[in-house]
Structure formats: C-alpha cells, structure tokens
C-alpha cells in the first residue's frame, strides 16, 4: 500500500468510471484522494480544496502544456473563482481552463478523452457523488 497518495501513478490516461467516497475508480483500480489526469498518466494530487489550487500545485500541468488543449478543474462540490494568475499562466501556454464541480469535470473529461482530444483534468476528491 502506498502511504503517499501523490506518489501513486498509472502510466496512461484513461476514463474515470466512478467518483465519491474521497476518491476515484479507473482502470479497474481505486484511488483515494485527489487526482491529476495528464497525457503522461494518472497521478495522485495533494490538493484537497479549491483554496489549495495554486500555480505550484498545477506545475505538472504546466510541464505538459504542449500536449494539453483543455484543462478541466474539478473544484469539489462547489464552483468558486480561481486565481486570475492561474488563468493567465494557462492562457499563455494556450490551455483553455474550465473550472466546475468535480462531477461535471469528470463527465466532460470522459467525453473529450473518448473523442481523443488533448484534455487534462485536475480533480479534487469529494465524499458524495452528484
């Protein structure tokens, strides 16, 4: 068992089958905690609330910006404004950012991934799926 959720990594980008209870199900596995879905795979993410969303926490996204057209940010159960500096940094790298509730972000992510679009997601885990 991995004690540090941010060290967990699945080496490809796949759709998300379910969410809730503080985590996600994908690729016949269960992941506890928040999740980054990037072109190089799925990784644990230490962010647990929108207040923790920073450029530093999104550095893995910025590192892969050349392979991402759209970033979906699942903010948990509420929609809140994100820091304008984050929007600016992503826009400068030609990434469209869409902040929404985690459930909506997952649904859109799955559709765009199935369409083979250059999509990424930064998903804050929630207890109750909506």
UniProtKB/TrEMBL annotation:
Coiled-coil residue spans: none
Pfam families: DUF498
Protein name: Uncharacterized conserved protein, contains Mth938-like domain
């Amino acid at each position: 068992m991995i004690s540090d959720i941010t060290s967990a990594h699945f080496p490809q980008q796949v759709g998300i089958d379910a969410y809730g209870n503080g985590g996600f199900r994908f690729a016949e596995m269960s992941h506890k905690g928040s999740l980054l879905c990037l072109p190089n795979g799925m990784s644990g993410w230490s962010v647990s609330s929108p207040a923790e969303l920073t450029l530093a926490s999104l550095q893995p996204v910025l590192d892969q910006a050349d392979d991402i057209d759209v970033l979906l940010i699942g903010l948990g159960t509420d929609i809140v404004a994100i820091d304008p500096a984050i929007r600016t940094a992503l826009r400068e790298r030609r990434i469209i950012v869409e902040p929404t509730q985690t459930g909506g972000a997952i649904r859109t992510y799955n559709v765009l991934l199935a369409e083979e679009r250059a999509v990424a997601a930064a998903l804050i885990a929630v207890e109750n799926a909506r």
